[in-house]
Amino acid sequence: MRLNEKELEIVEILEKDARIATEDIAKMVGLSLEETTESIKKLEENKVIVRYISIVDWTKVEEHPGVRAMIDVKVTPKRGVGFDEIAERIYRFDEVNSVYLMSGTYDLSIIVEGKSMNEVANFVSQKLSTLDSVISTTTHFILKKYKHDGIIFEPDNKDKRIVVSP
Amino acid sequence: MESTKRTYVSKLVHDLKPSGIRRFFDLAAGMEGVISLGVGEPDFVTPWHIREAAITSLEQGYTSYTPNAGLLELREEIAYYMKSQFNVAYSPADEIIVTVGASSAIDIALRTILDPGDEVIVVEPCFVSYVPMVELAGGVAVQVQALKEHDFKILPDQIEAVITEKTKAIMLCSPNNPTGTMLSRSELQGLADLANKYDLLVIADEIYAELAYDEEYTSMAAIDGMLERTILVSGFSKGFAMTGWRLGFVCAPVEISNAMLKVHQYGLMCASTMSQYAAIEALKHGRADVEEMVKSYRRRRNYIVQSFNEIGLECHKPGGAFYAFPSIQSTGLTSQEFAEKLLLQEGVAVVPGDVFGESGEGHIRCSYASSLEQLQEAVKRIKRFIDSL
């Protein structure tokens, strides 16, 4: 789908803040409310805008269980299907949050979520490593999230400007 | 011995009016929860890679003076930038001086060209420093007023009407602080014709040149024949969000540049070294940052202009900078009254238009370099204020 200038602006605005009122978007891009509503609908229908989600800082939630690990996986690709088959085998697990095919010293980078380190360890040892195509795995647990998808988790938003200036 | 108390402050400085902005600053500074639309600077922090370049220069020990005109590498980058961005060609060797903000560029320009009593035509509403700086340089400021009826664009006839034998230069700012008005190529041409006809210089304050939202920016120096007559003032503060670095520059034909360099070297020696290293990075790799900031300002401009018009404050759509300059005449208040009441009643700080010159009366300057949430809240409060009148 080729976007016109206004549609592109709308996507950019929504990508930064999905909860912004449509009438405010309309003002910012210089369209009527109806035109803006229509454009957003079209973007949603064409899956340019796939979903609206929240970025949650779970560390703020007391006693919320949860760990994330990034796992480097070396695999043997298969004739005819390359890496796609094994990637699909892996991404079907609910524990798996993301799967990427990588250049470099390993093949797949996957992000796994679990309630505890133990749970992730069990997933790796029992489900992931035992797959026929998997040659080796290296697991890195994430200790702290500073920035995620362009969002800084504890930003310093203080306005340091003086109140009135020429 | 009889003695009367001696006055140490010169008559010239004693007679300067204090800036009208000062009073509002003092008022607002003491209040809690103020939303300020009174800030004349970007709400962006300088992009990290630019800050990082300054840090690196410090780590590497570049802490000494630079040449008076600034680091040659920086002047070369400025020359390349001005040519590629605005199609004006200056020699890095002797036509560009790096200054301490655009303010000091204007200052050395005026002190370089003015003999006592020389007149400078100052187009207002304008930045609060223009008139005092002309006077401090020994000149006489002749103010002409860009009017709301003409979208705050000065007409050549208005300028021609005040030209005398003593007129040396015309000083103007486009995109303008405080109105946001930007002059088109043909409008600049009209002023250029006058400069040619009467053999005048133009001091073009182009500090907001990057922040043009609808049309491509035209520099005064890019008008045919004007390179020789223009003292082009610019800098990094607004476009690159670098106000606190205090770094500007001035470009002018070699004869004027050489003379300005004398004033600059005796007055300031050179601009801050670490700021100059940051500026090199800004010009080399910062254009994409500027584009992003321009996009963001444009959206906020559209938002605030439409919102003001909706709540009954007539507001023209400014072509550049980050100021909206709505009329508050419908309220029957003076701009000072409006701004003060608004601040005390609703905690919104704006700058009364009259501090930028007589023709700014009846208007308020609202900077939209604030987050959308802040702008939304400000509009809500201003509406409530107007409804209460």
UniProtKB/TrEMBL annotation, chain A:
InterPro entries in alphabetical order: AsnC-type_HTH_dom, Dimeric_a/b-barrel, HTH-Siroheme_Decarb, Tscrpt_reg_AsnC-like, Tscrpt_reg_AsnC/Lrp_C, WH-like_DNA-bd_sf, WH_DNA-bd_sf
Domain HTH asnC-type: 3-68
Xref: Pfam families: AsnC_trans_reg, HTH_24
Swiss-Prot/TrEMBL keywords: DNA-binding, Transcription, Transcription regulation
Molecular function terms from GO: sequence-specific DNA binding
Keyword Mitochondrion attached: no
Full protein name: DNA-binding Lrp family transcriptional regulator
Native source species: Ureibacillus chungkukjangi
Taxonomic placement: Bacteria, Bacillati, Bacillota, Bacilli, Bacillales
From TrEMBL, chain B:
Pfam families in UniProt: Aminotran_1_2
EC number of the protein: 2.6.1.-
Superkingdom field: Bacteria
Domain Aminotransferase class I/classII large, first and last residues per copy: 33-382
InterPro entries recorded: Aminotransferase_I/II_large, AspAT/PAT-like, NHTrfase_class1_PyrdxlP-BS, PyrdxlP-dep_Trfase, PyrdxlP-dep_Trfase_major, PyrdxlP-dep_Trfase_small
The UniProt record lists the keyword Ribosomal protein: no
Cofactor: pyridoxal 5'-phosphate
One MF term in the entry's GO annotations: pyridoxal phosphate binding
GO biological process, one term: amino acid metabolic process
Keywords attached to this entry: Aminotransferase, Pyridoxal phosphate, Transferase
UniProt similarity note: Belongs to the class-I pyridoxal-phosphate-dependent aminotransferase family.
Protein name: Aminotransferase
Biological source species: Ureibacillus chungkukjangi
